[in-house]
Design brief:
- With 399 residues, this protein is α/β, with parallel strands linked by helices.
- Among the domains are: 178 residues, 3-Layer(bba) Sandwich (FAD/NAD(P)-binding domain); 56 residues, no CATH class.
- The protein contains twelve helices and 19 strands.
- A hairpin with a 4-residue loop joins strand 15 and strand 16.
- The longest helix is centred in the last third of the chain and has 18 residues.
- The radius of gyration is 22 Å and the shape is globular.
- Bound molecules: flavin-adenine dinucleotide.
- Flavin-adenine dinucleotide binds next to helix 1, strand 18 and helix 12.
- The site of flavin-adenine dinucleotide (FAD) has 35 residues, from helix 1, strand 18 and helix 12.
């Protein structure tokens, strides 16, 4: 079977869907091919039959996500926003929950704080920059685990200037929020638009160009012909597919490493769980990178915990560790869900890679978006997709 489409997007994560949305808003029709059984990628709200939901991936949106808020407004989703309640993150130290300030060495913190006035983030890794600001011991024992939790992978080598960007906040929007049904409500709404079609279980196997069209081969053997082609895939997959078509861009993409994140989410009746109400847990030297709870959008009867694991353990071993941390027996778990994703592991010099890709793109006739341009946050994905959609719309008219 073969299809002929105007705009084709590969990958239905938030980057691909934001790009599809922007192009559809301009009146163009878009087909999105997605290898997984459902769209969303790192955005995955696990939904249980009784209407309870919890996040297996991204969990928080902010009022500083201006580009995303434009899309939220266009989709009429403001009335489905849920304000996230305040709850603390706790460190898990030798099996005990501890507050973050309690683990900081205050003398070291005060002795190092003056660096805040002289140090610049540019050209420094997260470990170098924040290590100077808080002191090496504080970095190793408190901040490195915190950053590891934020990034779901070891954080030391990330460029310091790619994290925690200053963005204008919208005062009319809750500081942090989700949606009824979880963040996936946003991706569901994008996908439901009449000008957007998402084909799931459609793994892209190869790309080619014939005449003025791109030819995309799917694992099923089907082919799709497209006038315009946008890639919104993890960098290694984009590199593999682009190697025959745009070798210079593929070579640049090869420089972007990724980390695997294997998540296990569980639900238990609130009365069985021994943990106090928390936004999340930051482990020190454990088998998992982080725990995110649903306590910030509390439910009277149920609580949910998603553990983002380091690679290696079996599911059984992971469930044992989860039960030990949250203090419930296996038989008290009402639900166990799994989800696997990847995130870029950015390093110093990353900006030059992104610039190189951008230099090569206009001549290639391709569009590339993802979480490896401005940063990993959903707002960074939305901003990048808006930029690529704008370029696509400016360069092309429907065939
Ligand atoms: C655990 C976790 C928590 C996070 N929390 C937050 C948060 O709270 N707030 C925030 O702003 N950000 C958060 N992030 C970051 C953010 O969610 C991600 O960076 C963003 O969602 C990535 O979107 P993407 O579309 O670029 O990539 P992905 O979501 O990885 O999407 C890429 C898509 O391409 C598909 N694909 C891959 N290969 C092929 C192929 N050959 N053919 C077709 N399809 C293919 C994949 O299946 C996937 O759906 C979190 C990330 C993780 C993992």
């Amino acid at each position: 079977m073969s299809d002929n489409v105007d705009v084709l997007v590969l990958g239905a994560g938030i980057s691909g869907l934001c790009l599809a949305h922007r192009v559809a808003q301009a009146g163009r029709t878009v087909l999105v091919l997605e290898s997984a059984a459902q769209p969303g990628g790192c955005v995955h709200s696990q939904r249980e039959p009784a209407g309870y939901w919890f996040e297996m991936g991204a969990h928080t949106l902010y009022n500083s996500y201006g580009s995303l808020l434009t899309i939220i407004g266009e989709l009429g989703l403001r009335d489905r926003m849920l304000t996230r309640r305040k709850a603390p993150f706790r460190l898990l130290v030798d099996g005990k929950l501890r507050s973050i300030p309690s683990q900081l060495s205050l003398p070291e913190l005060f002795a190092s704080a003056w660096h805040a006035f002289s140090e610049r983030k540019q050209g420094q890794t997260v470990a170098d920059y924040y290590g100077k600001l808080v002191g090496r011991r504080n970095w190793k024992h408190v901040l490195a685990p915190l950053f590891t939790t934020v990034l779901s992978q070891p954080a030391d080598n990330f460029p310091a200037d790619i994290l925690f960007k200053k963005r204008a906040r919208r005062k009319d929007i809750p500081r942090s929020y989700s949606f009824a049904g979880g963040i996936q409500t946003l991706t569901d709404r994008i996908v439901a638009q009449p000008k957007i079609t998402v084909r799931t279980n459609a793994q892209v196997r190869a790309l080619a160009r014939t005449g003025g069209s791109f030819v995309v081969e799917i694992a099923s053997g089907d082919r799709v012909f497209a006038q315009r082609l946008a890639l919104a895939l993890p960098a290694p997959e984009a590199a593999r597919l682009l190697a025959p078509l745009a070798p210079d861009i593929a070579t640049a993409l090869v420089g972007i490493q990724t980390a695997k994140i294997e998540s296990v989410g569980v639900v238990a009746e609130a009365r069985h769980v021994r943990l106090p109400r928390l936004a999340g847990i930051v482990p020190i030297g454990d088998t998992f990178f982080s725990v995110v709870t649903r306590d910030v959008v509390p439910d009277e009867h149920l609580r949910a915990f998603t553990f983002h694991f380091r690679p290696g353990l079996s599911l059984d071993e992971r469930i044992d560790r989860i039960c030990a941390v949250i203090g419930v027996g296996r038989s008290q778990l009402a639900c166990v869900a799994t989800h696997a994703t990847s995130l870029p592991s950015l390093a110093l010099g990353h900006a030059a890679i992104a610039e190189e890709i951008d230099r090569r793109l206009p001549a290639s006739g391709l569009y590339v978006t993802g979480n490896y341009f401005g940063g990993l946050a959903i707002e960074d994905c939305s901003l990048r997709s808006a930029k690529e959609a704008e370029r696509l719309l400016a360069e092309t008219r429907p065939a």
